[in-house]
Write a structure and sequence with these properties.
Blueprint: H1 7-25, H2 32-39, H3 43-46, H4 53-77, H5 82-99, H6 101-110, H7 121-143, H8 153-164, H9 167-170, H10 178-191, H11 197-200
Length: 201
Amino acid sequence: MAKRKPAAERRRQIACAAGELFAERGVQATTVRDIGERVGVLSGSLYHHFKTKQDIVHELMRSYRDELIARYRAANEQGGTARERLERLFRACVASNLSHPAETAILIHELDKLFQQEEFAYIQALVDDVEEIFVTVIADGMSAGEIRRDIAPAFAYRMMMDVMGAVQRWYEPGKHTEDQVVGGWIDIFFRGIAVDLQRRV
């Protein structure tokens, strides 16, 4: 007779399976039955661990939120030039996206949908906090003469996040390293892709 898994282990298994489905299909399109089938239990058994589907979302996103903001704050608090701070922030983003691909996909997919609901206000607070960190670093770089002053910090931040948010789709450990990815981003964001015509004269 197979041993029953401890409640905490089963809860983690359910949350992990649900997270994969939410990332693939979206929260609304995923049913409790889908989750039960992925885990290999009757859907009714899931209610012993989570009262609602959204409780599973909270289980996933609260821990993700805590880890993500801690990574960003630690990266920023080390100080240095704007380039050094942005490099650490990029590294924190890549590490988080690659270690939590499902939660990252859920955040991106549901930000303008499910996470607009009041019960997910902590997600909106997370997004605001992250933006404040990046925008402050960019603005500091502008003040210090490290970054062009004719750009909007918020626009630059959103462009950066759009680029970083897709990394888990194409990143292959055998072909890339996190250092290469972050180094490439930093190089292009600070030097651009255009040839400096004056240097060619």
